[in-house]
């Protein structure tokens, strides 16, 4: 694998990414086809249950959110990344560590807004859409909307409120898949009433 | 390569969605229909998966060979382990026992939550049935759990 080759030249800098090249990592890898096909079956079922694409998008986002709040714990337990100091670091961790760990791809982080609170993730390939074609009567469907929910849910659990949207989608004819993430605010920890 | 926990979380959400949607529609509807929905989804996925896995393998000698392939190669591909125990009566009934079924390990280690377990097995039963169907074997697949996370899948081959 080409990753191994880089380790020699950038010794200290790459230490951060080591957890994924460890021998036990292979125990966690599975055939991504199972995940892709299961996701396809799920979207098909949703399209059958709901009449319009907007509802399906909302359901996918909700399901993604529920997954995200659990996934973040799995992620933090298995990777040794510490607290991120700013949004740029967060973006790097998401692209280089999280996506690599869960989907085996590394999107690139680009298009930073001048204020530094918005960026884009460009995915050359999206494992969720292997074997998928959108039929003509589902033009409003954001097929991979689960990803937006996952990112939103995961970041909310680390005290960040973000807005995640698909800006481009290969299924709808664009060249790449682009996810736009915008930082809204830091969520303050709420101390339960009466807990002094 | 995807991560196994992704599939497990997605599966959890799928089960939750199917049950919540059915309950919203029709409170008196039998619970069976949610299981049927999940099994149907698994069926289609199983058909697709087996096509891809058996692209390059030689054809199977008989039913037992097919079931052994399911226990070894298919199970390894899906759950990274083999079926622990296969029993048959040589008359079309096979029992596949998995002592540590990966979709149930996070659930419980004992008899707690036993009533919920079938929901999480329906999808896998569908996958097995779909895989067999695309290898031209008609079957009925059911699952039973006595102590989690071990479970048994019973395959009964239908002869026409």
UniProtKB/TrEMBL annotation, chain A:
GO BP field: Golgi vesicle transport
Assembly and interaction partners: Homodimer.
Pfam family, one: TRAPP
Designated name of the protein: Trafficking protein particle complex subunit
Function: May play a role in vesicular transport from endoplasmic reticulum to Golgi.
Similarity comment text for this entry: Belongs to the TRAPP small subunits family. BET3 subfamily.
Lineage: Eukaryota, Metazoa, Chordata, Craniata, Vertebrata
UniProt-annotated location(s): Endoplasmic reticulum; Golgi apparatus, cis-Golgi network
Taxonomic source organism: Acipenser oxyrinchus oxyrinchus
UniProt keyword terms in alphabetical order: Endoplasmic reticulum, ER-Golgi transport, Golgi apparatus, Lipoprotein, Palmitate, Transport
Domain of life, per lineage: Eukaryota
Cellular component annotations (GO), alphabetically ordered: endoplasmic reticulum; Golgi apparatus; TRAPP complex
CDD domains: TRAPPC3_bet3
Keyword Transport attributed: yes
TrEMBL record, chain B:
GO cellular component: cis-Golgi network; endoplasmic reticulum; trans-Golgi network; TRAPP complex
Keywords: Endoplasmic reticulum, Golgi apparatus, Neurogenesis
Cellular location(s): Endoplasmic reticulum; Golgi apparatus, cis-Golgi network
Keyword Endoplasmic reticulum: yes
InterPro entries: NO_sig/Golgi_transp_ligand-bd (IPR024096), TRAPP_component (IPR007194), TRAPPC6/Trs33 (IPR037992)
Gene Ontology BP annotations: endoplasmic reticulum to Golgi vesicle-mediated transport; nervous system development
Record's signal peptide: none
Keyword Translocase: no
Homology family: Belongs to the TRAPP small subunits family. BET3 subfamily.
Function statement: Component of a transport protein particle (TRAPP) complex that may function in specific stages of inter-organelle traffic. Specifically involved in the early development of neural circuitry, likely by controlling the frequency and amplitude of intracellular calcium transients implicated in the regulation of neuron differentiation and survival.
Protein name (Swiss-Prot/TrEMBL): Trafficking protein particle complex subunit 6B
Source species of the chain: Acipenser oxyrinchus oxyrinchus
């Amino acid at each position: 694998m080409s990753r191994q080759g880089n380790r020699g030249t950038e010794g200290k800098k790459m230490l951060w990414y080591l957890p994924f090249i460890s021998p036990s990592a292979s125990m966690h890898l599975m055939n991504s086809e199972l995940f892709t096909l299961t996701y396809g079956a799920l979207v098909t079922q949703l399209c059958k249950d709901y009449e319009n694409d907007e509802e399906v998008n909302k359901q996918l986002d909700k399901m993604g959110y529920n997954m995200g709040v659990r996934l973040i714990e799995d992620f933090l337990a298995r990777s040794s990344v510490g607290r991120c100091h700013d949004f740029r670091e967060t973006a790097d961790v998401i692209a280089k560590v999280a996506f690599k760990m869960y989907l085996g791809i590394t999107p690139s982080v680009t298009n930073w807004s001048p204020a530094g609170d918005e960026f884009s993730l460009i995915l050359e390939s999206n494992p969720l859409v292997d074997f998928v074609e959108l039929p003509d009567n589902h033009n409003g469907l954001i097929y991979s909307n689960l990803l937006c929910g996952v990112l939103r849910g995961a970041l909310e659990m680390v005290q960040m409120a973000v807005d995640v949207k698909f800006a481009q989608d290969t299924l709808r004819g664009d060249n790449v898949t682009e996810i736009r993430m915008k930082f809204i605010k830091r969520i303050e920890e709420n101390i339960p009433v009466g807990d002094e | 390569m995807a991560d196994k926990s992704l599939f497990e979380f997605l599966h959890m959400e799928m089960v939750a969605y199917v049950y919540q949607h059915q309950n919203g529609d029709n409170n008196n509807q039998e619970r069976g229909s949610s299981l049927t929905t999940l099994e149907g989804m698994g069926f289609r996925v199983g058909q697709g998966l087996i096509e891809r896995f058996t692209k390059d393998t030689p054809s199977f000698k008989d039913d037992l060979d097919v079931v052994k392939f399911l226990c070894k190669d298919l199970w390894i591909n899906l759950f990274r382990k083999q079926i622990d125990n296969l029993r048959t009566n040589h008359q079309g009934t096979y029992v596949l026992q998995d002592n540590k079924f990966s979709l149930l390990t996070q659930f419980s280690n004992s008899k707690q939550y036993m009533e919920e377990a079938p929901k999480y097995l329906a999808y896998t039963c569908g996958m097995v049935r779909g895989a067999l169907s695309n290898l031209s074997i008609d079957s009925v697949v059911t699952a039973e759990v006595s102590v989690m996370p071990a479970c048994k899948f019973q395959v009964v081959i239908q002869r026409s």
